[in-house]
Amino acid sequence: MTEMQHIVLARRPEGAPVAEDFRLETAPLPVPGDGEVLVKLSHFSLDPYMRGRMDDAKSYAAPVPLNGTMEAGGVGEVIASNHPGFAPGDIAFGMFGWASHGCLPGKELRKLDPAHGPVTAALGVLGMPGFTGWAGLMEYGRPKAGETLVVAAATGPVGSMVGQLAKSLGLRVIGIAGGAEKCQMAVETFGFDACLDHRAYDDAKALRAALADACPDGIDIYFENVAGKVLEAVLPLMNVGGRIPLCGMIAWYNAGALGANQGGEVDQLPKLWRTILVKRLHVHGFIITDHFHRFGDFLKQVGPKVAGGDIRFVEDVAVGLENAPAAFMAMLGGGNTGKQIVAL
Amino acid sequence: MTEMQHIVLARRPEGAPVAEDFRLETAPLPVPGDGEVLVKLSHFSLDPYMRGRMDDAKSYAAPVPLNGTMEAGGVGEVIASNHPGFAPGDIAFGMFGWASHGCLPGKELRKLDPAHGPVTAALGVLGMPGFTGWAGLMEYGRPKAGETLVVAAATGPVGSMVGQLAKSLGLRVIGIAGGAEKCQMAVETFGFDACLDHRAYDDAKALRAALADACPDGIDIYFENVAGKVLEAVLPLMNVGGRIPLCGMIAWYNAGALGANQGGEVDQLPKLWRTILVKRLHVHGFIITDHFHRFGDFLKQVGPKVAGGDIRFVEDVAVGLENAPAAFMAMLGGGNTGKQIVAL
Fold it and tell me: Where would I find the Enoyl reductase (ER) domain in this sequence (chains A, B) (predicted)?
């Protein structure tokens, strides 16, 4: 084995990515330098944030350069190491990208213990998405027993973590998801009190009416990861003193420069601003990379619950590096069910 | 004296209030019942929030009923009392409305000690507006020395309190006000580092460029009381982790149903939402009536600073009840300088 494969950003998408925005390339297998570790990946993660990295817009992280490898966290087996902390055969997590192999400084990698469960958990329920749900809910949601929480993408790795944690804390939890199958999964697998299929409602007004029925005491926490129609439906139902941890807005990710003019011809900002004032809401934007100093606490708290089956997770696995772009494009449209992973 | 005068809401305004929306009426002087106190007002307060009370829209407080007395806090001398805590000659503050006299239960009144400074301070710097600035800044702004704060309506009773407190805590403070005279006052009287005249800039973009010059290290706290063009100018300049205490949006108060479609034809909400996410902002809506349990702390902390001249205040006094509507309408357009008061 002297070669590796990876997928590069062939061009910047306009709107929703298409196949031509990606290109599968072959490259020489890297030789690890001082302190570096070479890993043969078994799986990598596909997450909505990667859509943002494809745009050349100023954001909290640098965009993927044109012809650069698409960004992703992955797991795999160490096949060569110049770092004392890693030996061949170890299983490691790192930001290797959409690739068959990766070579990174050992200090940027995290060793996984396969005894703690499937290694893919490090990409989802016990990785960045699960950690995002935990940190956002606990730090900014400030959940209290008896309150009502709403989260969309309910069967995704963030939404399902938020919902299950909130249920375990005694909240009423209402999910929103795309399609009857996911809604059933939110209730039966993840224990949500109810889950609404946003596709069954023509507009925000219809969705709001259904949400109002499902939330007779209003909404205290809206964990925001989708925006768009769901945000519009939720806002008027927020209770006084409500909290909105805001970590994503997938409904708007495909609009080119994120956030530019995706709405209608009516400026909704004054209405939002008024709602925040009148309802005394607390809106907290957060980026999970700011919180990694608490990752150890997260693993300690949530790891045993995952191992014990108290927190469940669902994965959607695409097989083969060449199928990553299609899986990614489908995910942005809600075509996946559970944490989207690529297996190599 | 057997009669009193008061101003009632004659009809609900469409957009900016006009003279015909108000009516001066004469009524018999009330006779205080059990536990009630009759006060002859010397001054009452005009504040932007009163515009919201004129609309029949669901909000955090009930609207003024048609033909009901316009709401206001006022101060004056007790002329009759059936409450053991008040005697004729005492000076009291209460929500008497736009009126020459008022009769309220003694338990709803606060006795003022004229030795502590002019009684009008209870309407501004040591009343609801000053308290709004203090509570919003300290609880939600979380100011730290070396940071940069921006506040508009800089010479108003909220903005001038926020700016002076922030200066005393070691922040760089940039004001925004309407007109060169107010800008000069913000710097010379209130000690702001700089103050921009929003009228000197054609649009949000031009104002933003000037703000960027005045805030070379970005903006950490935007104390929001105006919205509109200022909000649009400020948002892109917010630093990561910035805070926005949000207590008002006077730029949008005259649009009938507050917050409905005052913006342009582009939906600015996605851009705002993106900024909150990318910059990890914390937006806190608050209504000062939720915080009155801390009013004693406020008086204890800020009262001595006002008495000692460390916190200064400016009042704009209209004379005569009949001139209250004109003064109120002017204030909504920024025609006042300092705390707007009506003297009787």
Answer: 17-342
